[in-house]
Amino acid sequence: EMLDYIFIHYADDMTLAKIAAHFCLQPNYFSTLFHRETGCTFNRFLTDIRMDKACEAMLHNPEQSLEVISQDVGIQNLPYFFRLFRERTGMTPRDFCAIAERLNSSAAGR
């Protein structure tokens, strides 16, 4: 149930304290349960979902503004989005979009 909630609300202003309160749990206890169930921290899990969704958005629509994509996945600070994206993928969002655009162009030309 917790994971379903996160997958549905990943773009919301979600913090460990807010989600723990939603499930009527103390943040420390929620964090312990979450790590036991998933093998990673809540913040890492949420960031992974957000970055996966950002990659999907860039692949499907590489012309979309990176600011809009970052906000759509729940990250309001664009420089922070760039940093997280680079840490996760090893490239900047702009580089990823350029690759996505080339892939989309070559697929459309087939």
Short description:
With 110 residues, the protein is mainly alpha-helical. It is built from 7 helices and no strands.
Topology:
Blueprint: H1 2-9, H2 16-22, H3 27-38, H4 42-60, H5 66-72, H6 78-89, H7 93-108
**Tally of DSSP helical segments:** 7
Radius of gyration, taken over Cα atoms and rounded to an integer in Å: 16 Å
Strand content: under 5%
The topology string of helices and strands comes to HHHHHHH
Number of strands: 0
Name the overall outline: elongated
Mean pLDDT: 92
Task: Write up what this structure looks like.
It is a single chain. The chain is mostly helical. Helix 2 (16-22) crosses helix 3 (27-38) and helix 4 (42-60) crosses helix 7. The radius of gyration is 16 Å and the shape is elongated. The chain has helices spanning 2-9, 16-22, 27-38, 42-60, 66-72, 78-89, 93-108. 18% of the residues are buried.
